Each structure stands twice: as structure tokens, then as C-alpha cells.
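Quick one, probably user error.
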């Protein structure tokens, strides 16, 4: 593995550095003279909600000392001369308070403060979680040393699927990466693909069920398990550096932050696809599904202590059934000239029921005033047991027919002349085929997490250390339906078919009319029956360990130094168990057709295609094996190609210092990360077996062709300096200037050999173990104004300069002949691979505003509003010879925005959320006519609530009430390639708090 090593810091060096650091800090702590001075400690809480407040500002003006409360609302001032003092305490959304405190030398004075606000006394305004959630979020990002956006999980009302990603996309600069079911599968931060975003829980990197990619699938875990989400856009040295786009951190609940003894919160809802709204037939057959969550928090006094044990238990269960229809991968003439014909038309009908059950337990135990232990365990099952997909593809060659002297077409040309941009006529030549594909899959993902953390506080010295282990173990199977646990992909085709595709009446739903050839609606006309099954595993296991030490320096101004070590080790393991059978029976394939299969396209047109139930095919293979020929070579080959292992180990050490000089706060430091990579996989032999050898002994031939082990190793070290400044003009107005550095490592898929063909585009994508990591230098400038109650206005500019930019590029063409390196397959295909492709720059503006209008008269006091907007400018050579900008750069989303209203009057509540994602280039190509763009999309969610009592609030939510589709186009906006319609869902339920 060809990796450039800048410098390697041996583990022994890291250990010596940390040992010296810890001993030095302890010695400094022992030298502190506490005989003539005292200490002020206390906790700040919210009188109305009975919660301790993190991030509250506590000032000791006579000594020019300031601090912020910790996770449990706690604060400490040390080395305070004996005497009388005034403490000033404030928190956004609450009224500030001044309290008196007396300090004696050598003693500790306690000053607990409970804040309240006149806003809670307004008869017309209900105290809701929205108010506290927004206050928590604004306080967290206001007091952070770096640019951070925060949102509380309850700040926007009910989420459609309780998916944390649904909340993340409401933050500035965050767009959704959607799957076919309209789920927020991943997040795109500041235009960067989700693979360049790290996701952690309480600061610990998470394993992704996505396998060897780095994209965490946000829809695989419930947001109901967490209190808030953070998006860190400028990582400080004490954070992992692998976050070029940003770092998403999911924060669990903190039970010891409660002032009350116990609290129970619940939500019981029903997701409903009403019969009076458009829907696919399969989804209509499964019209209702449950969605439930519950959280319990309690604080107890045990073993002689007082309120020293906190327990938080969360549980979640949902069934998220989605029916979707697609006008699928429609393909057009590969020229920008108009008119252009359509040579492939496709419809897709899918159904999936994601069943998720989750449990999370947090236990916090305070052994003494100086030590606390925390344990967290998370159990999450995200099962998709039954995912049937029915695809019909009418495709032909890209050739125009010749018209003879008699006015009739001659030869093998497929497209009839006279086509328009909306109407294409296809002739019944051999290349004109209708292909039906029946897929039945399952995706069974098990995620587990265990964490043990320790916290020690000794006046000036603060230690945090612990370990975390988590994994995601998905099984990719063939579905479970009607008592059967087998399915797969069954494909059959029919050649010599003629048809007309007409988009003149509807581009979303073109009309398809067969004009010639054997009927595509008669299963007896089809041949080439092929069945493929899978039983694959792609496990990811992650281990985290950390030690952090912070020392408050004995200076006249607030200052500290912090250093630490972190280990992150991720192991990836893939295993493929795939089978292939060809139908060789004498009975027509119509005997396998399932007349009970109904699709949206059939519902719309009245035409029924003879789709096959792949579960029934799997049974027939067992019951009638003589009608099926198994490809043993394929099974053995795929077992080698799909089995691989990658282990990535990152050892990191950092040091940073923080100080406040009057109105100016500074943080500076450097992080070192040493990356070790190990890859294991199989590669094919330079000379492959002959067709005769494969026929005679397929297993032995595949063993000879692919049983060749390849092991790769790589090691490199990088340093990441950072400088962060915040200037407080007033209590409300502050400015930030952050400089940070970050890294984007190649995916694990590039460490081991792999090959992914695209038979539509005639490309073959292969791995590149020699890739270097991307490196980024980041500048963030932000001006923020905060106002009461719970309001914010901010404007920011950012710039990222990226070297070693990783992009997919053409690296040649697959040769011809049996020994072309791919067993004679993929002849003439374009070879694609990830390469380090030069440089890239991204700049942009971010605007954000939110406010509750409590100053308005009467019923308008309950109105709240938020909006944000991000616009990017991209430029660079991206590995090419010319500089590109704007929508010429694949995967970058130039414009995103959000807007929302929240209204509360007495017991009634209403909310509207609008999300906008601008047009962007999804897949680049040297041919402009083949470049694939995503249409701009604006989607709205609407919700209503009515409070019967504190223990019961009724709610009604509409997801996508205007049925806004997802869509793609090739080159020209009128050439719609893909349209996905997911339809409207209604959710009604009851929630409450005890």
C-alpha cells in the first residue's frame, strides 16, 4: 500500500507524553494555596421545569471571574479571598438573578440558584418542551468555543419517523440524503457527501450499518433515544479530525441533571395511509402501523449519599411502512441536441416496512464530590423483513431506423424517426426488450453499544476517561413473507417488442403503449428466467478509548490547558453467500406468475404485467430442482470476491489552551493522529480458467481463479492545528473567527480489492488502495446576536481549501478476450476508480433566525418562527484540466433552506415546517447530456396538538401533504430520469408527561 508517511509517533512516545503531563498537572494542583482563600460552588436550575441547566453564565464581577455551568448545572470558583460577593446568574429565556454569598478562608460556600421567567406566568401561553428545547440549543451553541449548531429533539414537535436526521436537516447548511422511501438516510453538510461526516454518540464514533463506506445511516436509529443533536462545523483539537463536512453528535439524557425525583414521558401514535389519498396498492393493504416511545428518569439516594444515583431508561418501537412508485431510470439520447428520444423506460413499485425496536439505559453514580461513574448501554434492532420491489424495464438500442423507399423502416435500427421530446416510438427489433424484475429482500440490522465513563474533579484538575464499544451487524437476506424466509431476485425478459412512450400529458407518469411483438402482459411469452439469492453479512465493530485532563491555570484571568489521548479502532468484515439458478424447465414462465401482485402502475393504467413472486420461485427450486441449473462457479466466485476485512486504527493525542481576556475568548492547540490500516481480501488470477474447465469442475475452477490472498498495510501521521476566537461586544452580540484543519480518509472499500459493474452505463468501478487522505483547511467567520426570549440572528461565512481531493475518475478501458483480467467479462467497459484528483475550494454564506414573539398582543404571544438559508460556491480542478464551479461539481448541494412556524394558544398548538434543497449535480460525466441532476425540492410537514392535561396531549401530523416527489434529470430539465413518489402519511397520537 503506497501511503506517504509524514511522521510516526510511537505509542511509547504518546504514553510518556501523557504520563509527564498528568504528573505535572497533579504537582501544580498540589502547589495551590487554599489556606487564605475559599471556594464557591453551586448548581443552577430552572424552577419551572425542575431541571439543572448546562451552559448557564455565572459571573463574579468584583473579581472579574466568569464561568459556565457544567452538565449537571454545577459551577465552581476557587481561590476566592474571604469576604462578601454578588453572583450574577443568567440563562437565555429566563430572567437573570443576582445572589449574595459569603466566603470564609479554607471553606466552601454553596450558592444554589433557581431561575424563572415571567414568560411562564402568561395565561395564554402554555409551557411546552419547545421553549426549553430551543433555550437549551441556543445556549449550547452560544457558549461553545467553536462554531456549532444545536437542536433539541423536542424543539420542533413530533418528527415524522422519530429519525434524528429529520431534525438535523432543519439546521443551517444541512441537507438530506434520501432513500427511495423518503427517509433521511444520511446528511449532507455544507454540500459535502455524507461519507465526509462523522457521527458519534456522546463523543464516541459510531459503527455504520452501511458497511465499508463511511456514511452513517441516520434512519437506522431512533432520535427518541437522545436529548439533542449537535453539528460541529469547526472541530477543536480535542475532537476527532475526520470531519471535513462536520461532526454530528447525538447526546443522550443526563438523569442527574434533574431537580425532581422522577419523570416519565410517553408517546403513542398510529401512522395511517388513508384510503382517500393516493397510495400504492401494497401500502393500502398495510394502512396502519404503530409508533411508540417512552422515557423514564429517576434520581435516588443510595449507600448513604444524597441524590447520587441517576437512572434514565428509554424505549422505542415503530413500524414505518412505506409504499413508493417510481418512473424509474429513464434514459435518453446522449446528446444535448433537441429533440431527444427515450431509449429506456422503467417503472418501479416498492413496499418496505421498517420495524425498529430500541432500548437505552443510562446509569450515573456519584461516588463522592470528586468522582462520578457513568454507564450507558444501547440496544437497537432495525429490521426490514419484507421489501418487495417490482421493476419493469422497456429498453432498446441507441440506433435510429432507416426508412425505405416504401416508407417502412428497414434494418435493425430501433428508434423510429420523427420522435419528439415527449414521444418516442420503438420498433420490434431484437434489441427491444421488456424485462421484468421481481425482488424480495430483507435487511436485518442489529446495533449494540456499551460505554463506561469516569469523571474526577479536584479543584483545578478535571479528568475524564473511559471506553466505548459499539457495533452494527446487518444481514442482507431474501425476505420473510407469508411464512416463507426465502426470496431473492427473479428476472425474465421478452425480446422483439415495439412500444410508444408518451410524456406529453404527464412527465411524472408517462404512458406506455405496446405497438408490436408478443404481448408483454402474457407471462408465457417470456424467457431467460434467472434467480439470484443472497445471505450476506457486513459487520462493523468500533472501539473507543479516551483520557482527557484539564487544568485551570492560577492566572488573574480565566485560563486552562487541556491534553489527552484517544484510540479509535474500526473493524469491517464482509461475507457474501450468493447463489444463481437459470430456469431450464419446459413449462412456460407464466406458471410462476403471481396474479395477486398489484402495482401502482397497474392501478393507474389497468394493464397487469405478469410479475413473479420470488418466494414462490425459491420454493420451486427446492421442490423441482431438475427445472433449474445452479451456477456453482458464480457461488464460489462471489464467496471470494465478497469476503474481505479491513481494520483501521487511529491513535490521537492533543494539547490545547483556552483563555479569556475581558471580552475576548481564545482557544488554540494542535492534534496529532496516527492512522494504521490493514486490509485482507481475494483477487483473481492473472490467467483465468477456460470455459471448458469451468463447465467440468466449476468449484475447482473458481478456487483456482480467485483463491489468491491480497493483504494491504498503510500507516501515516497528520497534525491538525486550530485557532478559535470569540469576541463579546455585548451580552447579546458576539463574533467568531475559527481556523481549523481536518481530514477525510478513504473508505474501507478502497483498502481491499473490489469491483462493481454498471451494465447500464458500461462502467466497472474498482478499488484504489493507494489513495491518500483528503486534507482541509477551514475558516469560519460568524456574527451572532441573541435576544430574549429564546431568540437568535446570525450570519456567517466559511471557506474550505481541500488538497488530495478524492473523486471518481476514468482510468482506462477493460480489454477484450478471455484473459482481460475479468474472465472475459466487461469487455470495452470504462474503468472507474477513486483517485486523488487535485484541489477543491468551497465557500459559502449561512443565515439563521429564530424568535418567539411574546411581545405581541393577545393570542399572538404564542407565535414563533425560524428560518435559515445556506448558499455555497464551489470551485477547483477536481482532477481535471479545467476549473469547475457551481452545479458542475458532483454531490455538492449549492442551496439549502428551512422555514417554520410554531403557534401555541392556551391548549391548542400548530406547526408548519418547510424544507428546501436546491438543484444539484448528482453524478458527473464528461458527456453533458448524461450528467445526472437532482431537481430542487420543497417539502412541508404540518402538525396540530391539543392539551387535555399535562399527562395527555393529542396530536395530528401530516408528512408531505402536497405529495412532493423526488426527481432526477439528465442534462436538460425536461429529460426526467427518475421520479419517486412516496405519498402523504397521517400520524395521530397522544403524548404526555408525569
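Nope, works fine. Designed sequence:
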Amino acid at each position: 500500500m503506497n501511503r506517504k508517511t509524514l511522521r510516526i509517533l510511537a505509542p511509547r512516545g504518546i504514553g510518556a507524553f501523557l504520563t509527564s503531563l498528568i504528573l505535572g498537572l497533579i504537582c501544580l494542583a498540589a502547589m495551590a494555596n487554599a489556606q487564605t482563600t475559599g471556594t464557591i460552588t453551586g448548581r443552577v436550575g430552572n424552577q419551572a421545569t425542575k431541571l439543572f441547566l448546562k451552559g448557564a453564565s455565572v459571573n463574579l464581577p468584583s473579581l472579574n471571574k466568569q464561568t459556565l455551568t457544567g452538565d449537571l448545572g454545577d459551577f465552581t470558583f476557587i481561590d476566592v479571598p474571604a469576604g462578601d460577593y454578588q453572583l450574577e446568574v443568567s440563562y437565555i429565556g429566563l430572567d437573570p438573578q443576582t445572589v449574595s454569598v459569603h466566603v470564609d478562608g479554607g471553606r466552601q460556600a454553596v450558592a444554589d440558584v433557581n431561575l424563572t421567567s415571567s414568560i411562564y406566568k402568561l395565561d395564554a401561553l402554555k409551557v411546552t418542551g419547545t421553549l426549553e428545547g430551543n433555550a437549551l440549543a441556543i445556549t449550547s451553541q452560544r457558549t461553545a468555543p467553536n462554531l456549532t449548531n444545536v437542536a433539541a429533539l423536542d424543539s420542533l414537535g413530533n418528527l415524522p419517523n422519530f429519525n434524528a436526521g429529520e431534525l438535523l436537516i432543519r439546521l443551517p447548511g444541512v441537507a438530506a440524503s434520501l432513500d427511495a422511501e423518503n427517509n433521511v438516510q444520511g446528511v449532507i453538510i455544507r454540500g459535502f457527501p455524507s461519507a465526509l461526516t462523522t457521527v458519534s454518540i456522546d463523543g464516541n464514533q459510531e459503527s455504520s450499518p452501511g458497511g465499508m463506506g463511511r456514511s452513517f445511516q441516520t434512519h437506522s436509529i431512533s432520535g427518541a433515544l437522545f436529548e439533542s443533536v449537535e453539528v460541529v462545523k469547526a472541530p477543536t483539537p480535542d475532537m476527532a479530525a475526520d470531519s471535513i463536512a462536520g461532526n454530528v453528535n447525538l447526546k443522550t439524557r443526563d438523569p442527574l441533571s434533574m431537580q425532581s425525583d422522577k419523570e416519565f414521558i410517553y408517546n403513542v401514535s398510529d401512522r395511517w395511509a388513508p384510503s382517500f389519498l393516493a397510495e400504492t396498492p401494497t401500502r393500502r393493504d398495510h394502512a396502519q402501523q404503530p409508533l411508540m416511545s417512552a422515557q423514564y428518569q429517576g434520581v435516588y439516594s443510595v449507600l448513604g449519599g444524597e441524590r447520587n444515583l441517576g437512572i434514565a431508561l428509554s424505549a422505542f418501537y415503530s413500524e414505518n411502512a412505506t409504499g413508493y412508485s417510481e418512473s424509474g431510470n429513464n434514459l435518453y439520447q446522449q446528446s444535448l441536441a433537441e429533440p431527444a428520444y427515450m431509449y429506456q423506460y422503467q417503472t418501479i413499485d416498492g413496499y418496505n416496512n421498517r420495524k425498529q425496536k430500541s432500548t437505552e439505559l443510562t446509569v450515573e453514580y456519584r461516588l463522592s464530590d470528586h468522582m462520578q461513574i457513568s454507564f450507558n448501554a444501547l440496544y437497537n434492532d432495525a429490521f426490514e423483513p419484507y421489501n418487495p420491489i417490482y421493476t419493469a424495464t422497456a429498453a432498446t438500442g441507441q440506433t435510429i431506423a432507416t426508412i425505405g423507399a416504401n416508407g417502412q423502416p428497414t434494418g435493425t435500427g430501433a428508434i423510429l424517426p420523427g420522435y419528439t421530446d415527449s414521444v418516442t416510438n420503438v420498433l420490434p427489433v431484437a434489441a427491444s426488450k421488456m424485462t421484468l424484475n421481481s425482488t424480495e429482500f430483507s435487511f436485518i440490522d442489529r446495533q449494540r453499544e456499551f460505554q463506561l465513563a469516569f469523571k474526577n474533579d479536584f479543584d483545578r484538575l478535571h479528568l475524564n476517561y473511559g471506553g466505548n464499544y459499539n457495533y452494527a451487524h446487518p444481514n442482507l437476506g431474501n425476505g420473510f413473507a407469508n411464512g416463507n424466509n426465502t426470496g431473492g431476485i427473479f428476472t425474465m425478459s421478452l425480446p422483439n417488442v415495439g412500444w410508444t412512450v408518451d410524456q406529453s400529458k404527464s412527465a411524472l407518469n408517462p404512458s406506455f403503449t405496446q405497438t408490436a411483438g408478443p404481448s408483454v402482459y402474457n407471462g408465457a411469452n417470456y424467457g431467460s428466467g434467472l434467480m439470484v439469492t443472497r445471505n450476506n453479512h457486513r459487520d462493523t465493530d468500533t472501539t473507543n478509548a479516551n483520557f482527557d485532563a484539564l487544568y485551570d491555570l492560577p492566572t488573574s484571568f480565566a485560563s486552562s490547558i487541556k491534553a489527552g489521548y484517544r484510540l479509535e479502532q474500526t473493524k469491517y468484515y464482509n461475507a457474501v453467500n450468493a447463489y444463481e439458478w437459470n430456469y431450464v424447465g419446459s413449462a412456460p414462465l407464466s406458471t410462476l406468475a403471481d396474479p395477486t401482485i398489484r402495482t401502482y402502475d397497474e392501478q393507474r393504467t389497468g394493464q397487469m404485467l405478469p410479475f413473479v413472486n420470488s418466494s414462490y420461485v425459491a420454493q420451486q427450486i427446492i421442490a423441482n430442482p431438475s427445472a433449474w441449473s445452479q451456477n456453482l462457479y458464480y457461488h464460489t466466485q462471489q464467496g471470494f470476491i465478497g469476503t474481505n476485512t479491513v481494520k483501521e486504527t487511529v491513535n490521537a493525542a492533543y494539547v490545547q489552551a483556552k483563555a479569556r481576556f475581558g471580552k475576548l475568548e481564545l482557544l488554540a492547540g494542535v492534534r496529532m493522529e496516527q492512522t494504521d490500516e490493514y486490509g485482507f481480501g481475494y483477487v483473481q488470477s492473472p490467467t483465468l480458467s477456460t470455459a471448458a474447465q469451468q463447465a467440468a469442475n466449476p468449484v475447482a475452477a473458481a478456487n483456482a481463479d480467485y483463491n489468491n490472498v491480497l493483504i494491504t498495510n498503510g500507516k501515516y501521521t497528520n497534525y491538525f492545528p486550530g485557532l478559535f476566537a470569540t469576541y463579546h461586544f455585548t451580552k447579546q452580540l458576539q463574533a467568531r473567527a475559527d481556523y481549523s484543519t481536518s481530514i477525510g480518509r478513504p473508505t474501507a472499500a478502497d483498502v481491499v480489492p473490489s469491483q462493481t459493474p454498471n451494465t447500464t452505463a458500461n462502467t466497472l468501478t474498482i478499488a484504489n488502495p493507494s489513495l491518500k487522505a483528503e486534507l482541509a483547511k477551514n475558516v469560519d467567520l460568524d456574527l451572532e446576536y441573541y435576544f430574549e426570549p429564546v431568540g437568535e440572528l446570525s450570519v456567517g461565512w466559511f471557506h474550505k481549501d481541500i488538497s488530495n481531493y478524492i473523486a471518481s475518475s476514468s482510468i482506462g478501458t477493460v480489454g477484450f478476450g478471455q484473459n482481460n483480467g475479468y474472465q472475459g467479462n466487461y469487455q470495452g467497459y470504462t474503468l472507474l476508480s477513486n483517485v486523488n484528483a487535485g484541489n477543491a475550494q468551497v465557500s459559502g454564506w449561512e443565515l439563521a433566525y429564530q424568535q418567539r414573539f411574546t411581545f405581541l398582543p393577545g393570542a399572538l404571544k404564542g407565535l414563533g418562527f425560524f428560518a435559515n438559508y445556506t448558499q455555497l460556491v464551489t470551485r477547483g480542478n477536481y482532477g481535471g484540466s479545467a476549473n469547475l464551479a457551481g452545479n458542475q461539481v458532483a454531490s455538492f448541494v449549492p442551496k439549502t433552506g428551512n422555514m417554520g412556524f410554531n403557534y401555541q394558544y392556551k391548549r391548542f398548538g400548530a406547526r408548519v415546517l418547510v424544507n428546501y434543497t436546491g438543484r444539484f449535480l448528482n453524478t458527473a460525466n464528461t458527456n453533458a447530456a448524461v450528467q445526472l441532476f437532482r431537481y430542487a425540492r420543497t417539502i412541508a410537514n404540518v402538525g396540530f396538538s391539543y392539551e387535555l392535561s399535562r399527562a395527555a396531549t393529542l396530536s395530528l401530523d401530516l408528512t408531505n401533504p402536497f405529495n412532493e416527489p423526488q426527481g432526477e434529470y439528465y442534462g436538460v430539465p425536461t429529460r426526467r430520469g427518475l421520479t419517486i413518489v412516496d405519498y402523504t402519511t397521517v400520524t395521530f397520537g397522544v403524548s404526555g408527561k408525569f
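DSSP finds nine helices and 57 strands in the chain.
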